[in-house]
Specification:
Chain lengths: 512, 788
């Protein structure tokens, strides 16, 4: 067994890729395909948890693909990677279960391979220690998510022409981002002669110390803000998100808002606090300013929405701004707060998107102005949505409260008074738009003539409500007892700010 | 029992048993309300059992670890103040839940009603016994949410939804400010634990001397004011009257609205005695007291009248807690505490009366009520006791605390010196005059005068004992506390005042204490009150016409403007931000890139272009020339087909370049990829119109060209700099590849070995990307066929 647990990092990527290939071949055997996909997803959840435990107990895990050391590609699982992988595999598993009932049977045959490749892309991005490999997995992510956005739901409330239009925007903007990333990676390689992140980091630090750091390294760093900002959808790179997240099938919206945009956050932490750590000071004010704009514009736009999923999408923009704010503050407490924020947002937003899927199938529309009074016809969705809404609004006893609390705490300790004041103001906005949405949908009287329940083919399916119940429970649990998450986040933040262990684990290996 | 366990039980039993309510309802049907009263009784007894513990100003604290990472414990603190609140919460709780058995019809959603009531009670208890600010905040927001749910109990009514939303927005948002205040306080003192600060004179001095003193005070006070409906935040309370009347009596007069008062009393030792404290707390209090008391006149709904009265009465208490000078930091503390208790009794009593009247007469409109004294004699007597107590008439408890209010006003005025010696008592009397007038109006409008001819049910009578006894009990307390004040004063007020002042306090409250200044003020109040009462209707009429003429002089007007128009206003903003065409978004992305690039470029670049070595062969130049032509063609040709061909020409030219750079295998790959993508492109565009739809105006063209050229130059500058070679002493990894390719990987072609071995994992990823593209196209075709 000792040899198997050494392979955890690669298994998290290999299993989904392998299953993706198998599910393509099993297109005509839907039951087998589904079974295989679910089994793989579940085993990935288990392996990722084991990996996190291993990293927690015995430190950073390094896996050499092909045993070429820093000359080849290295996978690295530190606390940051391992914990995000647990989050992503968990949300993926729940979304997959939900999809089994939600996605149209005909779409499912290609849905499974795409979904598995999305998971592979996520885990590949989180675990890689090589910057070009990160680029490759970003491509995997981009294309697999495009394919999933256009998958069809059972009811067809969202027209496929809308989906195509949104996908087009998504593709164009992200390909541009990818091109910039390629330029940045190539320039970095040309400057340092290596693609291994630890190696680059060490070399840039040495140049900084020797005074030979060329100015264009700063330009490269700023390009990375655009690259990861684009993935995370911060202002003014967020434009694709409010089109893509609402039109995607709800389980995919949950994946996109819950996990995929966090790739950008992960990238920021990795590149700026590790690769560019000695010149970080220059980037922080820029990140803070962009974060504040993101918070404000996302929240203000969310208030204006009548489409429930579009509202949730703008809310994601605003919430990711809070995560970036913590990154911009850059202290140990602030980074821990960002991580906590990211986790809580991922869980709450996945919950909300999955619930919104049930709601729009129940109501037959995404327009909240046509809903109303649903608390009587769908009390389950009312409670689930309320739990998520309270978390986003930052109200106790939900997880979202803890995230706002620790973020404000870190900000005030760091004397970022103005920034916290702005963040606080827009926290009231988020309370307003979340509760307005909840009230429009669940209280009052129904405003449209059509009766509810016409579409309600999901209400009773455990495939739909079990993931929702689990996520709702997690939101509540992380609010009531947040200590495990907080101590994990603090340990992670400490590791991010002191990357010596990472560097040693990667660079002191004997190479053939 | 250990106090820690008692309090924990008192707080969490309501939470746990709230979950059991639906099951109990299945068993005993509509009698489930008695179960809830029983739960309240248990909590009440648990709290009462701790009175001896704090009788003489002692306190008790115990905690267990909860969130050590941020220094937050589950920690309870028992002192006079928390016991006083605990008794009010559970005591009124018993009364309200018993009364509800008569008030709530059997067809109502009783489990939900009692569940939220119990959850509210638990949250409220948790709040007053919390020893640290974060725990206090958590329970504080829980009371906001339970209040939201109870105000919106009739959740299909638009007014309920409006009232519930308003209360949540104001109180929960205010809570966020309070949280910020607590965090600021922590950044000064290093702890969230309130007793730690209270018991450490050095910490208190540190807070007072800190630059963030005012910020902490204001932030915390915003929380308190929003919860206790003070200052501009009062607006939510009148709309909260959409709740069932027992809820209004419980949450919105006796308990939840006093949470802000509790907070002010709790942090009193930290902040009081400073100018800022007096100006902020008493200033807000006095203004609120006068404005709300005055505005009560035009209310025609008896619950609305009581709501404005509540705002005004809470402002009395707030004002008294604000009365503090550096020498005497607690001028109004005892008076405030006593009035707080008395207000809970008489206001809850009046709300119960309002509920009885609405229940029996089917209206709460004072213009349609009147002359009910014959039909409801018992209710009439109870209402009179409650209202006279509120008006400050002896020998009721309201008289005693009103006297103390006047006394402390005199003292505060005296302490501040001229001209406040006169102003503060005068303002206090003015507040008392308004209270007197609307208290009399409450009795007169419902019970006195003539019964209206129409509009009322023909048979109106006193309600069942279930509803009358709770109200009568409160009326009894009003008289008892008035005649024998020592019961309340010794057991509750003195311990509370002692715990706020941090030293033992002794009070002498008597009905008759000679012809003092405060008694004179009371007499003036009565005289002026009667005078104002005779003009009551004309004042109300004037207020109405003023409101019609200047509707915008109102905080509600601002609130409605902000909240109702928020969506439409921001709709414009949102569509301005998100116009739709992807061209704009690309522009934003590129623009940000340029701006960001400009930062280091302008700031750091000294000789940004290194010495260039243009050693380019003429045939290479030719290739470059064609590449430029092809790129321009791809960007500018008006039809799809030529543009695509132009683009692929560019790709082939890149392949040609690879051959010149002696990388034939790369060139081959490039040619293959280019061919494939051109074929796919051509297949895809066969079925769509051949020209671009968008019309490009010259100015648009210029803008895009400018951006494009900027980005291109940026990339050019970056790459020219980056390709100046690896910064010494570092070198490329290629020596390793050259050395190891053959012996370790068994290949001759380094590029091939890098692709399939050294970096074979990347290649796997790229293969996945290709596979994904294929799947994506497959899906696209699939979904096309579906929709058509």
């Amino acid at each position: 067994m000792s040899s198997l647990n050494h392979h955890y990092p690669i298994l998290l990527i290999a299993i989904p890729i392998l299953v993706a290939a198998l599910t393509i071949m099993l297109r005509s055997r839907p039951k087998l395909q589904t079974g295989l996909s679910v089994l793989a997803s579940f085993s990935v959840v288990l392996i990722s948890s084991l990996l996190l435990m291993k990293v927690w107990n015995s430190g950073i895990q390094v896996y050499e693909v092909g045993e070429w050391g820093k000359y080849g590609i290295i996978l690295v699982a530190d606390l940051l990677s391992a914990s995000i992988v647990v989050l992503s595999s968990g949300v993926s598993f729940l979304s997959l279960i939900y999809s089994l009932d939600y996605i149209k049977k005909r779409s499912l045959s290609t849905y499974h391979p795409l979904f598995n490749l999305l998971v592979a892309g996520l885990h590949g991005s989180f675990l890689t220690g090589d910057i070009f490999n990160l680029f490759v997995f970003f491509e995997v992510l981009l294309l697999s998510s495009c394919g999933l956005v256009v998958a069809l739901e059972k009811d067809g409330i969202t027209k496929s022409s809308d989906k195509l239009e949104a996908t087009f925007k998504y593709l164009i903007l992200n390909i541009l981002g990818a091109a910039l990333m390629l330029i940045a990676v190539a320039s970095l390689y040309a400057t340092t002669g290596t693609l291994n992140m630890a190696d680059i980091s060490v070399k840039l630090s040495a140049m900084q110390a020797a005074g030979t750091l060329p100015w264009h390294v700063f330009a490269i760093g700023l390009l990375f803000i655009v690259v990861f900002g684009n993935k995370a959808a911060i202002f003014p790179l967020h434009y694709w998100l409010p089109d893509v997240h609402p039109t995607a099938p709800s389980p995919i919206s949950a994946m996109l808002s819950g996990v995929l945009i966090k790739v950008g956050v992960y990238g920021m932490l990795r590149i700026f606090f590790f690769v560019f750590r000695d010149v970080l000071g220059m980037f922080q004010p820029i990140i803070i300013i962009l974060a504040l704009f993101t918070i404000g514009i996302g929240a203000a736009s969310a208030v204006a929405q009548t489409d429930v999923k579009r509202l949730l999408a703008y809310s994601s923009v605003s919430q990711i701004g809070y995560v970036f704010l913590g990154i911009g503050f850059g202290s140990l407490g602030a980074i821990a707060a960002s991580l906590v924020y990211m986790f809580n947002h991922a869980i709450a937003k996945s919950l909300l998107f999955l619930t919104s899927g049930g709601i729009i199938h129940h109501a037959g529309t995404r327009d909240m102005n046509k809903m109303g009074g649903m608390v009587n016809s769908s009390p389950f969705m009312a409670v689930a949505f309320l739990i998520g809404a309270m978390s986003i609004a930052g109200l106790p006893p939900m997880g979202g409260f803890i995230s706002k609390f620790v973020l404000f705490d870190a900000g005030i300790i760091g004397k970022y008074y103005t920034e916290i004041a702005i963040a606080l103001l827009f926290a009231i906005f988020s309370m307003f738009y979340m509760f307005r949405a909840w009230l429009l949908m669940f209280w009052g009287e129904k405003r449209d003539v059509k009766a509810y329940g016409e579409y309600s083919e999901h209400g009773s399916s455990p495939l739909v409500y079990l993931p929702i119940v689990f996520l709702a429970f997690m939101v509540l649990a992380l609010g009531v007892y947040s200590e495990p998450l907080l101590s994990l986040a603090q340990a992670t933040a400490a590791q991010i700010l002191d990357p010596q262990a990472y560097i040693e684990a990667v660079l002191t290996r004997v190479v053939r | 029992m250990d106090p820690f366990i008692s309090i924990t039980l008192a707080v969490f039993l309501p939470f746990l048993l709230a979950a059991a309510v639906p099951a109990v309802e299945k068993l005993i049907k509509h009698k489930v309300g008695w179960f809830a009263s029983f739960v309240a009784l248990v909590s009440f007894l648990l709290v009462v059992s701790l009175i001896p513990l704090v009788m003489h100003g002692e306190h008790f604290q115990a905690s267990v670890e909860w969130i050590p990472s941020v220094g937050v414990e589950y920690s309870i603190y028992v002192d006079g103040l928390s016991i006083l609140f605990g008794i009010i919460i559970t005591g009124i709780g018993i009364i309200i839940m018993s009364y509800s058995n008569g008030y709530m019809g059997h067809k109502e959603d009783l489990p939900r009603y009692y569940q939220w009531l119990l959850l509210f009670m638990g949250s409220m208890l948790g709040m007053v016994f919390a020893a640290n600010t974060i725990m206090l905040f958590i329970f504080w927001e829980l009371t906001s949410i339970t209040s939201f749910m109870l105000i919106g109990y009739w959740r299909n009514r638009p007014e309920s939804v409006y009232g519930a939303t308003k209360s949540l927005l104001v109180t929960a948002a205010g809570g966020l400010f309070m949280l910020a205040g607590f965090i600021v306080l922590r950044s000064i003192t290093g702890t969230f634990d309130i007793p730690t600060i209270l018991q450490n004179e050095m910490l208190i001095q540190a807070v007072r001397g800190h630059e963030l003193f005012l910020a902490a005070l204001i932030l915390i006070f915003i929380g308190a004011a929003s919860k206790s409906a003070q200052g501009p935040f009062y607006i939510w309370l009148p709309n909260a009257m959409e709740a069932p009347t027992p809820v209004s009596a419980f949450l919105h007069s006796a308990t939840m609205v006093k949470a802000g008062i509790y907070l002010v009393a709790r942090v009193h030792p930290i902040f009081s005695g400073t100018d800022a404290w007096f100006i902020l707390i008493s200033g807000t209090g006095i203004i609120t007291m006068l404005v709300a008391g005055f505005l009560a006149f035009r209310q025609i709904d008896i619950k609305a009248l009581l709501a404005y009265s509540t705002v005004s009465q809470l402002a009395y208490i707030m004002t008294m807690y604000g009365y503090a000078t550096y020498q005497e930091p607690g001028i109004g503390v005892a008076a405030a505490t006593f009035h707080l208790l008395n207000h809970a009794t008489f206001k809850a009593c009046l709300f119960l009366v309002a509920g009885i009247v609405a229940h029996e007469a089917a209206t709460r409109d004072i213009t349609r009520l009147g002359g009910l004294r014959h039909e409801m004699p018992i209710t009439f007597i109870i209402a009179t006791i409650g209202a006279l107590s509120m008006a400050g008439v002896p020998p009721l408890n309201g008289f005693l605390s009103k006297e103390m209010f006047y006394e402390s006003s005199l003292e505060m005025g005296h302490a501040l010196g001229s001209p406040f010696t006169f102003i503060i008592p005068a303002l206090a009397v003015a507040g008392g005059v308004f209270t007197f007038a609307y208290s009399i109006k409450f009795i007169a409008a419902i019970f006195l005068g003539k019964r209206p001819e129409k509009g009322l049910p023909s048979h109106i009578h006193d309600p069942s004992f279930v509803m009358i006894i709770p109200a009568a009990f409160l009326a009894g307390l009003i008289i008892l506390f008035g005649l024998v004040p020592s019961i309340a004063v010794q057991n509750l007020v003195e311990p509370t005042a002692s715990s706020i002042m941090m030293e033992t306090q002794h009070l002498h409250v008597k009905l008759w204490h000679g012809l003092t200044g405060s008694l004179v003020m009371t007499l003036i109040t009565f005289l002026l009150g009667i005078a104002v009462y005779t003009r009551y209707d004309s004042i109300a009429k004037w207020q109405n016409s003023f409101n019609r003429k200047y509707p915008f002089i109102s905080i509600n007007y601002i609130y409605d403007g902000l909240v109702n128009n928020a969506k439409d206003t921001l709709k414009g903003f949102s569509s301005f931000m998100q116009p739709g065409p992807v061209r704009r978004y690309v522009l934003a992305l590129l623009f940000l890139t340029i701006v960001l690039f400009a930062v280091p470029f302008l700031k750091l670049s000294a000789g940004f272009i290194p010495t260039l070595n243009f050693d380019v062969a003429p045939y290479e130049l030719l290739v470059f020339f064609f590449m430029i032509i092809a790129a321009l063609g791809a960007a500018m040709l008006p039809k799809y087909l030529p543009a695509v061909i132009s683009l692929s020409a560019l790709g082939y030219l890149v392949g040609l370049l690879f051959i010149y750079l002696s990388a034939p295998d790369l060139a081959l790959t490039q040619v293959l990829v280019e061919t494939l993508s051109t074929i796919i492109f051509l297949l895809a565009i066969v079925r769509i119109p051949q020209t671009f739809k968008e019309r490009i105006t010259p100015s648009l063209f210029m803008r895009d060209a400018l951006i494009a050229v900027s980005v291109a130059s940026m990339v050019f500058i970056l790459l020219i700099n980056a390709t100046q070679g690896i910064i010494p002493p570092f070198e490329s990894l290629s020596y390793y590849f050259i050395e190891k390719t053959l012996p370790l990987a068994g290949g001759h072609n380094i590029v091939n070995v890098v692709i399939v071995d050294f970096r074979g994992y990347d290649t796997l990823g790229e293969i996945s990307v290709m596979c994904l593209a294929a799947l994506g196209v497959y899906n696209l075709i699939h979904s096309r066929g579906e929709s058509e």
